[in-house]
Amino acid sequence: MQHRRIALVGFMASGKSTVGKSLANHLQRPFVDLDQYIESSTGKTIPDIFGSLGEAAFRQLERDALTSVVRGDELIVLATGGGVVTQAANRDVLQREWVCIYLRTRPETVRQRLHRDGVVRPLLAVDNPTEAIRSLMAAREAWYNEVADFTVDVDSLEVPAVVRQIIDWL
Ligand code: S3P
C-alpha cells in the first residue's frame, strides 16, 4: 500500500478534499483535487461546464482527467468527484491503479454539510436536494463499495480522526 497512489472516493460533501489535503500532508505526498484539475485545465468552473456543455461532457472531461492527472510514478493523493464511480471505465482504472479509500456518509450528513465548503454542486441545485441526495446515493453505493479498498464511516468523525484511521490502515 505504501507505494501506490491513493484516491479518496465518496459522495459529495463527504470531506474528500479536506481529508485528502491533510492525508497528503501527513504522508508528504503531492495532493491533487480532480475537480480543480478539470477547472484549471479547461479554464471553466464545474457549474459552468455543467451549464454550458452538460453532464455528459463533464463526465468525458472527468474520465480524461483521471488518467492524465497521473504523471510518471508520482505517488499522489487524489480527491475525486463524487460521480467518478458512475463510469465503468473509471471504476476499472481506480481498481487497477489506485488504493481507494471510501469516505462513507449518511444522506443526512451530506445535507447538513452541503453548504459548508462553499462548493456549488449542479446535481444538487434542484427543488428537492434531500431527495436528490437520497436517490443518487442509493444508485452509487454499490459502485463505491466495488472500488473501495478501505472504508471510513465519517458521519461523526472530525478530519484528524478520519486521517488517523486511514494512516493506521495503510
Ligand atoms: C459530482 C460531484 C462533484 C463534482 C460535480 C459532480 C457528482 O464533486 O465533480 O459537481 O456527480 O457527485 P464533489 O464530490 O467534490 O462535490
Structural notes for this entry:
The protein has 170 residues and is of the alpha/beta class. 52% of the residues lie in helices and 14% in strands. The protein has a single domain (5-165), classed as 3-Layer(aba) Sandwich (Rossmann fold), CATH 3.40.50.300. The chain starts with a strand and ends with a helix. 33% of the residues are buried. The chain binds shikimate-3-phosphate (S3P). Residues 12, 16, 35, 46, 81-83, 119, 121-123 line the site of shikimate-3-phosphate.
In short:
Its EC number is 2.7.1.71. The protein is α/β, with parallel strands linked by helices and 170 residues long. It is globular.
- Number of DSSP strands? 5
Major β-sheet annotation: 5 strands, parallel
Estimated structural class: alpha/beta
- Total of domains: 1
Overall CATH architecture? 3-Layer(aba) Sandwich
Superfamily at the CATH H level?
A: P-loop containing nucleotide triphosphate hydrolases
CATH topology: Rossmann fold
Question: Rg to the nearest angstrom?
Answer: 15 Å
Measured as a percent range, the helix fraction is 40-55%
CATH class: Alpha Beta
Shape, please? globular
- Beta strand %: 5-15%
What is the strand and helix layout of this fold?
Layout: E1 5-10, H1 16-27, E2 31-33, H2 34-42, H3 46-52, H4 55-68, E3 77-79, H5 88-97, E4 98-104, H6 107-113, H7 129-147, E5 150-153, H8 159-169
Parallel strand pairs: 1-3, 1-4, 2-3, 4-5
Helix pairs in contact: 1-8, 2-4, 3-4, 6-7
Shikimate-3-phosphate is lined by residues 12, 16, 35, 46, 81-83, 119, 121-123.
Fill in the keyword field for this structure:
single chain, 170 residues, alpha/beta, Rossmann fold, 8 helices, 14% strand, globular, binds shikimate-3-phosphate
